[in-house]
Amino acid sequence: MTAQQRTLFGAGRRRFIPWLLLAPGVGFYLVMAVGPSIATAFYSFTDATGLRGLPINWVGFDNYNEFAFEGARSRDNLDAVQRTLLFMVLVTVLQFGVGLLMAILVNQRLKGSLVFRTLFFVPVILGAVVQGLMWKLFLRPGGGPMDTIYGWLGLESQFLAGPSAFYWVVLVQIWANAGFTMVVFLAGMQTIPAELNEAAAVDGATGWQLFKNVTWPQLTPAVNTNFLLNIIGSLQAWMLFLVLTGFTNSTKVLGYVVYAEGFGQQGTSSFRQGYAAAASIVLFLLVLVLGMAANFVVTRRERKYLG
Amino acid sequence: MLLLAVLALVAAACGSDASTDDADGDAGSTDTEATESASDDSSSSDDGDTDTAEAAAGLEGTLRVMIHQNPPMVEWVESFNADFEAANPGVTIDLSVIDAADLPTANQTRLSAGDVDVTTVTVTGFANPVQPYMTDVEPPYWQQLIDAGLLMDLSGQDFVGNYDDAAIAEGGSYDGGVYSLNLGRVSYSGMFVNLDLLGEVGVDVPTTWGELVAACDTVKGAGYECMTAGGADGWPIFVGAYGLLGSLYPDQEGLVEGLWTGEAAWNDEQGQKLFERYEVYANEMLEDQAAGLGHDAAIERYKAGDVAFAPTGNWQAGVMEPAADSDLTPAEFEWTYIPFPGSDNAADNQILFGKYDQGWAVAEGTPVEDLAMAYLAAFSDPDTYNDFANTVNFLPTQPTATLDNTLGRAVAPLLQEGAFTVGYEQWFIGPAGAGQWANAGQGALWFYNGDFADAAEAADQAQADFEAGLGG
Questions:
Q1: What would the mean pLDDT of B253-260 be, rounded to a whole number?
Q2: Domain boundaries, chain B
């Protein structure tokens, strides 16, 4: 233990105080996060149903085998994985861009920017059910607001009931979460010393040059945070799909497959929480691998810009 | 979060025994010494109200009851509960109303946690039993609940005898026990017909597919809509087409067996015809506005009077013609309910396919068993049940009950001829590994959602997905 650490943690019995203070939080984390995650991995090798009274049998890799290789079901699962990845790419890129744009706009010293800042953030606090209900009403064919706008343009769409349903969910997901992305960017922008911009302006930098050479590099922590949060959030998203499109084969994402299999939502099917646990482990691995890859990229970027 | 959700439930289910035998638990308790069957001494008011919730000696406690959302039924049950509480001052009914789609999850969690006493265990009777010709399939969830010991065997209860044998056998029995008290049959192979509108445009009630197509053309030509359904919920689209499936495959159980044994195929001649008609139904007959309507909203929209047909379950008759004391408003046009005329042969269009609907079940180990039994006994009183069936528009499962309303008059001739059959989807179980398109009973929705634009392609996909589960 270094002298600095001894100073930090004190001497004698006092050195245990930090650990005691940490214990509730660590314990909560172990019980509520680590423990269930390990147990889910365990259940993925069983035929658990979630029903008290039914035995739980070890089935080895059967659930994974069924998920990935058995019959046309594996094709459907692969489709769901691909759809999940497409959703991630679209949401990450577009939400990132929209959030950044909103942050730039509300960061201007313009009249009413505080009002817009609040308005842009409001969807974040609504929750998936309210968000879904609002958009179901907004996208209602047969006289709904968007249907009316389409009518003015001579267009027709079934919106959430048609082949474009997936992309409407992408839109709603972005609408629902871009406010949070904006707040993270905004926080980053407000930490940039005004002197940097002023000095660059004195040197004759244009608006674009200011953004490219001053704001963007200084935003690196916020960029990286948003990048990672958008990837992870979009991979885990499924509730909006449930609320907006419900029972639709062509919009199933991996998170929805987990829910449907685990909770008997596949029409007349059984409770298959062992299989659902296997699917959720697949989703976890997807998040882990993509999250780590993204983290590697953003860490390198951070070193490049900030040293 | 998803990991946590799954795990929490598994852990709850597999954790400590969390015994529900403890009458001192927070579920409330009962000191009842004995419960008398209310079916023997019930009374009924002149208007057939639900005041037959006769007091049973010394009942007290809280009874947690769970039902699914169905406006006329919820209204009726709330009224029944109030009467039951009034007749039993020590009793409180804690009623939960949930969406039908959430029933499996709610039963899974609440029964495992000992958090419900009387529940609607399914809305499909004891459907989809595993048949001898099926291999490597998972049992339906109601069977899992019974195998887990979560439902009480009601055999021997006096009130069970109030229901007809078929309802007990087909709608609630398993492995020698009676685990669900089925409350009624419903047909979803029919459609409501706006007789006033057809009369206005000079069209007879269609009896064949060709007549239906022609009727739709005429109706739409006159500026009205042909059909509506709850497209926003998805499932009403394919449920609305169950009649089409049924009229083309009158032997519904045989169709499922044929698929498993290879004697039938979704892409054979009859299957192709089915998909072609699905496409017409989904893309040409249903109004555009249907996509924005939920299941309950669709029938309200139909009541506006400018749509000729509403293919849906007969349970919606309770919304078309609500009980006198209901908050719902009745349809202001003359209507009837007919089997969906999906076949070219009118005789094939005279069968009502359907299911056993919801059934009461009692949680094994409930701390208020006597109260639960008294509740079911009061409900099963013939007069009370008759009122229930007429309010909810279930085709009765008590032999003494009759539907005395427009729906009853419409379907009575069909029922007298024994033309009620358990439908295809109550038999269908896809083989493990079958794809998401294997259940062509849902084919109409595929066209509606734009998943397929070509009937032959959809039929081939359905058959390929089914065969994939058979190892084909």
A1: 95
A2: 48-186+355-416, 190-350+430-470
